[in-house]
Amino acid sequence: MPDSEVLEKFPQRIRDVSLERLNGLPTDVIETVKHCDLDSLSFTHVRYRAPWNLLLSNLCKDTMTVAGDAMHVMGPFLGQGGSCGLEDSVVLARCLARELHLGQDHEIDDREFKKRVAVALKEYVKERRLRVLRLSVQTFLVGSMVVSSSWAKKVLCFAILVAFFGGMSFSHARFDCGPL
């Protein structure tokens, strides 16, 4: 039986495994986990996706797409998580409105509707992919600088930021996602 299945059946083991991994964190965090309600615990697989996975990932299929944090997780380093989600919603709404010809008074059947939605979602992903990749790489580099204890790594990350993004500027915050 895989570890995750064993852990699901024994919540006290989830707590114990968590406590083993909290070494070095503040005492109040450790105490909170130590005294948690065991019935509230569950085991979830979390997988790291590097920012460059956005280039290779299939982000939509037919009438389904990923958006917001499902498409891109932003670290807190650039303050872009909520902003990027709002950008996504504006761009998605614009793509859907453009393809569905919203505001016009003609009916379309279900098959045509699904076809148009699929086209809109492909356009949305095409429009967002490079923007989100840029933000993800920037936040990855800034985060690496913040958490690294190696000065060489910090200098390398800063050099990459300067070379590709103009340094630590706020240019990432000046994005016009266009009209609806």
Which shape, going by the Cα principal axes? Answer: flat
Order of helices and strands: HHHHEEHHH
Counting DSSP H or I runs of 4 or more residues, the number of helices is: 7
Give the strand line-up of the largest sheet: 1-2
Distance between the termini: 51 Å
SSE order and pairing:
Layout: H1 3-9, H2 11-21, H3 27-34, H4 53-56, E1 60-61, E2 64-65, H5 81-100, H6 110-147, H7 151-165
Antiparallel strand pairs: 1-2
Keywords summarizing the entry:
2 domains, 180 residues
Your description of this structure?
With 180 residues, this protein is an all-alpha fold. The protein is 57% helix and 2% strand. It has seven helices and two strands. The chain has helices at 3-9, 11-21, 27-34, 53-56, 81-100, 110-147, 151-165; strands at 60-61, 64-65. Strands 1-2 form a two-stranded antiparallel ribbon. The model has no long low-confidence stretch (mean pLDDT 82).
Short description:
The chain has 180 residues and is mainly α. It has seven helices and two strands; from the N terminus they run ααααββααα.
